[in-house]
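[scheduler] slot 2 assigned
[scheduler] job type: sequence-to-structure, two independent chains
[scheduler] chain ordering preserved from manifest
[runner] begin chain α
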Amino acid sequence: MTSLHPAEAARLLVEIPERGGSVIVATVVGDNQFTGNRIALIVIENEEPELRGSLSLKSGTDSVIQLMKNILEDPRASDGLHELTVADHLSEVYIELRRPVQELVVVGAGHIAQPLAHLGALLGFQVTVIDDRPEFATRERFPSAEKVIRANFSDPFRETPLHTRSHVLLVTRGHKYDYACLIRALRMDPPPAYIGMIGSRRRVRATYVQLLEEGITHALLDRIHAPVGLDVGAETPEEIAVAVAAELIMVRRGGTGASLKGVERIVERFFKEDK
């Protein structure tokens, strides 16, 4: 097996995430003998991992592959340079990582949906906006969305099948529409990665009571992010969109949502007052 060609590596970094897989490409950059050699590890759900290319490092390839696997398992990992010592020989490997393309499905095309769709696109989601009103479900209102679909809320996902990479936000104009879409999303198999619903505490509680009466389990209730977003005191549509976007990042990256000031405690740790 020969080193992966740069054009092939670039193609894999684009195509595999669109197929729902992860791809990581390792390129030797700090070893005069093997600089430019590339190897790719492709992981697609329910399929065996696949290797493409070779590093020509007989004693070091296994170490590079293990490094690639470790990076794939880290939700916070990103592109970067790594040093490896194999048989007392130091090599530098540059890692390029692309994860499956995530989808954001915004159900409702009102005033909150617009900044949500815009922020979703900025965060790298493929955004779909769904509404039943032709005057709201327009490309002019949602220029950054991948798709803008007019659909009946009784069957909102007919043209947008949900899957394990779908993040669903329910921000319709009324409780009955949110509920109709919510119960369909909850019954999807496999379930979407995220289901968020806007609403007050009272409205959310009433929704949960209704869901339990229809046989939805507590385990499924726990999958719902409602009221949606992190508590940042948001009031305007734009602020609410930021709070929701922050929660999406937290779910995707495995964060806590805590204030970094409180986590790092810089003053307390490094600038204690002399007494």
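[runner] end chain α
[runner] begin chain β
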Amino acid sequence: MSQQDHFTMPAEWAPHDAMWSAWPHDPEQWTEGLAEPQAALMAMCAAMVDPDATGTPRGERVELLVRSGADEAAARALLGAAAVGVRFHHRGYGDVWLRDTGPIFVTRGGAGGGEVSAARFSFDGWGGKYLMEGDREVSSFVTARSGVSGCAFDFVLEGGAIEVDGEGRLLTTKQCLLGGARNPGLDEEALEARLRWALGVEHIVWLDRGLQNDHTDGHIDTLARFVAPGVVAAMEPAAGDPNEAALRGILADLRAARPGGRALEVVTVPSPGDVRDRAGNLLPASYMNFIIANTVVVVPTYGAAADDAAVAAIAKLFPGRRTVGLPGKPVVVGGGAFHCSTQQQPSPPR
């Protein structure tokens, strides 16, 4: 299957035209307050815009959903000089998790030039757990505002549930896609066929389960990430990590996998270990929830002993980009981190 005749999902490190995200606004979804997650997510957006000393953006345009002019003004105040690289879209939406509520952008080449399309999937509030007004309409809205073509598929799929390397390999988890809540009538074979058709992949690697207290039921973007074709990063558990068994199982499964008959190269990053909210609840904190933008990689940090080592380890994987660590704990309190709150719009392939 070539890029000339079928749409495929490009790897995240391929060039982007834009990155989509949203402004956190609902106090019921952010139990420790809105100020810190708002500041963290706007710092993330500013990093992706990456303005130089003159204020000229070096990175990519950020497309930001806000509900109103008041939200836009508050976001601009936090963005500062980076606001020049942000385009604001006013509409109602539930929360910031555009990785899951937005479309998944796919591309294909051709003699007349490259093409981008927005693949839209059914969204059921993460297996019916979090049904928020406006979230089911986000995908169509983003497709319309992105200015690209679109297509719709009749099964449930969230962007955080899948990870691709742009050369035919896809990672996902059984807990999420085969757990029963999202697509109860589809078995592994049927889901693989749909993933191959919708995303242009060939080889699918199934991991088992995710982190404790993960609202998404084991999204792959908190567990393992492609950092180059056939190269996967995953976390080595810290001493006393509550997720030690799951993380060791992930490493074992990745090392045993043979997609297309070839082994994956597995590199490790330390885990943040035991990270809790103010009430003492275990959080699904993960350094794997980083974003690969055009000029930077943004890594969530948690005030953990391994923060600096994890940022340094990820930086080595992306020598052509600047790597920055930003506070992720205020965001993960709401259910995700930086990668969960973004969706890249790739540039057309040349």
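[runner] end chain β
[qc] chain β: The domain at 16-341 is CATH 3.75.10.10 (L-arginine/glycine Amidinotransferase; Chain A).
[scheduler] slot 2 released
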